[in-house]
Amino acid sequence: MSNGSAIKYENSIFINCPFDEDYARVFNAIVFTIHDLGFTARCARERDDASENRLDKIMGIIDQCKYAIHDLSRADRNSKDLPRFNMPFELGLFLGCKKWGSGKHNDKVSLILDKEKYRYLEFISDLRGQDTKNHNDDPQKAVQAVREWLAGPTLERVRRHGASQIWDRFQQFEEKLPSICEGINILPGELTYPEYVQLVKEFIIAFDLSQP
After folding, report:
1. What is the pTM of this model?
2. Which of 11, 184, 186, 209 has CA atoms 20 to 30 A from the CA of 126?
3. Which CATH number does the domain housing residue 124 bear?
4. 3-state DSSP call for residue 59?
5. CB-count burial class (<10 Å; 0-12, 13-18, 19+) for 72
6. Which DSSP helix (H) or strand (E) runs through 94?
């Protein structure tokens, strides 16, 4: 994926989430939902450049995105009994950009996800009063949460896409992904983030063209 200069700010959604294997299907479902609704999913995995500072990369993506999805469901203690602060930290960056940024940044919109409703108050009580949604580690619930959230500020764009329809399309994509990958001589687990996004976009276009 490019540096984002060709991607419209109003279409861009920053995904602030964990990248562990247990979360992968929730992440994939969120990415699919974003693109199925006509938006562009952005995250730190879109560029792999060892010469680029990770924090600078994240702040650059935040600058280019009107929307963001912040999933705090993995802000638990790790194997060394230490909490994972990356997601809350990046949420703070986005909220700070909205509060003190000028012009377009004042209109930034966020969705905060967690495993259980209000669980986040146990470790980040400053978010009290924020409207959050929970997905219970269920990718289908994540699809519904993202779709309902985008229906608020962009109702006209998502009107023809119900959560159940998006979920059905995502499952079809998952079923076809191994054969799609076989056709390009790669295993599904070897796909980079930009490759995965490209296959999602191609599938959605083909699916829409196949409908009467």
Report:
1. 0.89
2. 11
3. 3.40.50
4. helix
5. buried
6. helix 86-100
